[in-house]
Amino acid sequence: MADTHQTRALRPHTKSKSGCRACKVRKVKCSEARPSCTSCLRRKEACEYDYERIRFRHVRPDAENQTTAPSTAVTTSAAQSPASAPSSSSTSRRGPSSPTPPYSSVGDFSSWIDGESTERRLLELRLLHHFTSCTVQSGFPGCHDEVIFEMWWRDAPALALKHTFLLNIIISIAALHITKIHPEQAEMADAHRVYFNAAVAGLRCAVRDINGENAEAVCISNVLIALPSFIMLQKSDMQTYSPPLQLFSLLATNIPLFKSAWHLLPLGSKVYTFTTAKPHIMDFLVETRKDMYREPFQAFLAWRAVGEVVDQENQEAYEFAMGFVGCILANIENQLEASPLRRLLYSFPTLVPPVFVERLKERNPRALTVLAYYFCLAKAMDNVWWMRGIAEREVFGIQSLLPEEWQWAMSWPLQKIAGFAASGMPPIS
């Protein structure tokens, strides 16, 4: 009699060396999204990464000026406030995997953030006031929409008084804004790092226990928490360039998290405006599918390097990305205002197919070139504090990684950067 027992074959997948601990234990593919990967979000499990373990270490006082990788070390006792912390190191423990937060060496949050002191309270009041009076008034994402602007300016700070993780990310972004407009205030860099990692830790716990009480704060925090990753691209080291993988990881969690929180949001919540504000992202996605937006890039999409093989799934991902680029370019040429353009540009890491990000992790030349085409468009709208200089750094950095046979494909993004720069932009805000 034939044996009817069949062993179920494991689904093939690419092993992830930097996945979360839970996925490694279960031996499944990890999306590496922050603050919680897709698998942990679905299973409502704690999502933690090995390199994010909290620790102290001592550093040289001048280390901050020597390197710009994202790691941070807090060299202080628990009694000190963020405002009085010594300088932090930027030496990465992770190597050149990604030039963006979260920071891999930050002190004990329970004693650092929760410790009461007059200095800490004054610092937080100052930064909360700065966020409402300056940061959101300076070209902040989505502020071309009146409802979103009102949410950043009034609703989010009020909600933050009930949810510490949202308060911490607001304070962190305000501190980062100050470092951009007042670079001499070096202590703000320390405040940004400490409060950012505290926000990530707090948001991770909230995501695991999302409910009607915290759903709004979780959604708002998840939108805000990717912004520092975008901003920190301004500081990436050109000599040791690596693709901004953390930016894609942080923004990739937006869609699954919003889906899980949608039915928990209160009626009339301004969070709904993230999806309904103009330009409408879903309408834009439909528009990007039109052949006319990929037409200028057909030669690049059809060309193959010696020995290069592109399967259908990857080809479709590249075509999606180039349609996205072409549609944004058309809006630039049609003189759409800068703020709506930034909304479209900022949505790309959230919407791009995961297989494209997998190719970026491998530093695939075609995926890197597509990324250069995307980032060069930032030059047409970078007259805001959180975007200035990103286009040049990313495009030139990508060019430095590409082999000689791919250099011809970089002529288009390089020409676009030069053209956007020559056209002139209003003063930076």
From TrEMBL:
The entry's keywords: Nucleus
Pfam families: Zn_clus
Protein name: Sterol uptake control protein
Gene that this sequence comes from: UPC2_2
GO molecular function: DNA-binding transcription factor activity, RNA polymerase II-specific; zinc ion binding
Gene3D superfamilies, per the entry: Zn(2)-C6 fungal-type DNA-binding domain
Basic residues: compositionally biased ranges: 8-21
InterPro entries assigned to the protein according to its UniProt record, in alphabetical order: Zn2-C6_fun-type_DNA-bd_sf, Zn2-C6_fungal_TF, Zn2Cys6_DnaBD
Zn(2)-C6 fungal-type domain location: 19-49
Domain of life: Eukaryota
Extent of Low complexity compositional bias: 67-97
PANTHER family associated with the record: STEROL REGULATORY ELEMENT-BINDING PROTEIN ECM22, ZN(2)-C6 FUNGAL-TYPE DOMAIN-CONTAINING PROTEIN
Chaperone among keywords: no
PROSITE patterns listed in its UniProt record: ZN2_CY6_FUNGAL_1 (PS00463), ZN2_CY6_FUNGAL_2 (PS50048)
Renumbered residue ranges of the record's region Disordered: 1-21, 60-103
